Amino acid sequence: MNPSSNSKKQSFLQLLSNSLFFDKSKTKFSSSTEIIHIKKTKKFEKMNEELHSYENLLETNFKISKTSKLSSSDMITRESSQAFKKEKFKNISLNFIKERSNLKSEWKSKYLALTTQMKVLEDELETRMKELEATNAKLGAKKNELDLGARNNELAARIEELEASNTELDYQKKEIEASYANINIRNQELEALNKEITEQTKETESSNAELTIRTKELEVSNTKIDNQKKELEASDYKLAEQIKELEAFNIKLTSQIKESEVSNVQLNAQKKGIDDLTAELEASNSQKKKTKTSNSELAAYKNDLKVSNAEMNTEIKDSDAKFSEITLKKDESENKLMQDIEYPLKSSSHINIESHHDRDRV
């Protein structure tokens, strides 16, 4: 045997395995037959492993002998060991072939027996199936009869339930119809109420439009009043300045009046002294001329003082008249401002009262 040919041709063990094992998909065994088959298979697998190990050993030896140069004695020893191994392998192969042929014949006989038994079982099964079909037909007829009776009872009970349900539905239908009648009446009332609300809404909208217009007018009036108020404030400021000036002028006039009064007191004192002197001068003719001259001078001075006092009184009267005029203008402007402020407030309060009355009517 040439081990180098194993790589190109199918191995001897593979040929043995292919010839020993049947197609498992085509063969059906019982449980006991399967157990025997498993045991035999394990045995042959073990033998296959041993043969495979010997084959590998021969191939290894052949490669070693081919690569190494051995002596003649070593070659003889190796050839004798190889011959022994070949003989042993041959004996194992023959035993394996005999075992295979025995198993093959045994399996064929068992296969024929199983095939015959399977045919008998199939015939029995077919007969049993026919009997079962006949029994099923009888049972089906009885079942249909029983089902029809039970179905009729169920239908009768269902009919009674439906009749009771129909009675209840009729009662509910009457209640619903009565409820619909009440709902229709309520809908009519709601429609009438909606009409009233619509009319009131229109009235409210028109009133709101009037109020809006009036509000705009009031806003314009308020703007005017604000402008007038600003003008009055400016006028008040000017009047206050003028009043301050008049007060300063009055203070000046008062001081002048006081000075005039002091001067009048002095003049009265001088007049008294003059009168005394006049009395003394009347007693004395020599001094009478002097006294007349002095009296005329004093009279002229007195007239001058009277003119000065008259002018001062005129100025005081003029300042009092101006002050009264300014005070009158101030009072008039304040009264006008108060009237302008009070009129929009009265108008807005009157409008608010009317809007409240309109809301109460709605």
From TrEMBL:
Name of the protein described by the UniProt record: 886_t:CDS:1
Keyword terms, alphabetized: Coiled coil
Coiled-coil segments on the chain, per record: 104-210, 267-294
Presence of the UniProt keyword Coiled coil in the record: yes
